[in-house]
Amino acid sequence: MKVYAWNNGSPNNKSGTGYGIEISEKDRGKYFDESWTKVVINFNDGNSTNVRISKSFWKDCIELRSQKIGKYLIENGIAPWDKGKRPSLSLELVDENRFRLATGRWNERKALQLVNWITERAIDGIPPLSSAEDLANEYLIDLSYPNDEERIESLINWETTKNFTSGFVTGLGGFITLPVSIPAAFGASWVIQARMAAAIAKIAGHDIHSDRVKTFVLVCLVGDAMKDIVKDAGINIARGFTKTAVKRIPGRLLIEINKKVGFRLLTKTGEKGVINVSKVVPILSGPVAGSFDAYMCRLVGKTAKDIFYNNS
Question: Measured between alpha carbons, how far is 272 from 49 in angstroms, rounded to an integer?
């Protein structure tokens, strides 16, 4: 949703007090619940803050007021602003009462940079990983499998087991440079998972070099949020994801979906619980760190199978 920077008329441009964001009445009714006493705001730098919702929020004062929001506005050159020229920002609902706040410029540019970086390395490979096509061909040329479904299941099982037993995600994280400031372990995980999803698409007969297929490889990374993302784009995956249906998806929708996936992934790096896991992965024992990677890998694999194979 589009929100506007707000101040109380005499804000402190050093501490950030007196600042906030203003929500439209329409968006307040659509995205907020009167039972909430607070909301959590995630910023694109990985920080977050709790903002109390007052009774006046449901009357005439539709602002979220916070010193940390003020600091964010100041540090990003958004505040102070010229009279009558209030800047707009993007506020995205990512969970029950959790939102992500970002400037429009940062929001779109960084989101697209991240997803392009992931797909490029997932499809083409990144040492020591082979390309998604080579990975798929390992299973396609193996005639011991009775059908493609068995190949896909074996691929998911093997990738999940490999991640669990070897701590491969942590190792790979040390060799990559991300286009945005997030922990390398996240980037490594997303590349491995997207590579597996692309290999599944290849086994199911899709052209993984197609922009449309690449977009839905990315969609696999966001789990249950996939349903909301494709629904908002007007796409009904339940009706089938055949090769013919893929070609009918307009290019403009692909860009919007890519943005939404990028927003979701960036938001995950700002959630306190996930960040903590990432920071301790290098020193955790294999079973603890590996179980986290394995769970996510299997979830992405199941989603990819549902999209590319079960609905094809």
Answer: 10
Written as one letter, the residue type at 230 is: V
The Cβ of residue 51 has, within 10 Å, a number of other Cβ atoms equal to 20
pTM recorded for the entire structure:
0.65
Q: What is the pLDDT of residues 225-273, one digit of tens each?
A: 777 777 766 776 665 566 666 777 888 888 888 988 887 787 666 543 3
Handedness of CA 149, 153, 154, 156 (dihedral sign): positive
Q: Which of 40, 25, 231, 195 is nearest to 120 (CA)?
A: 195
Q: Are 209 and 202 in contact (CB under 8 A)?
A: no
pLDDT digits (tens, 9 = 90+) for 171-226: 555 545 666 666 777 888 899 999 999 999 999 999 999 999 999 999 999 877 77
Q: 């100041």: which residue's tokens?
A: 74
Tens-digit pLDDT profile for residues 3-27:
999 999 999 999 999 999 999 999 9
Q: Which of 146, 136, 263 is nearest to 199 (CA)?
A: 136
- Asked if 222 and 261 touch (Cβ cutoff 8 Å), the reply is yes
Yes or no: say if 308 and 201 are a contact pair by the CB < 8 Å rule: yes
Residue 38 has φ and ψ, to the nearest 5°, of: -155, 165
Q: Note the pLDDT of residue 146.
A: 96
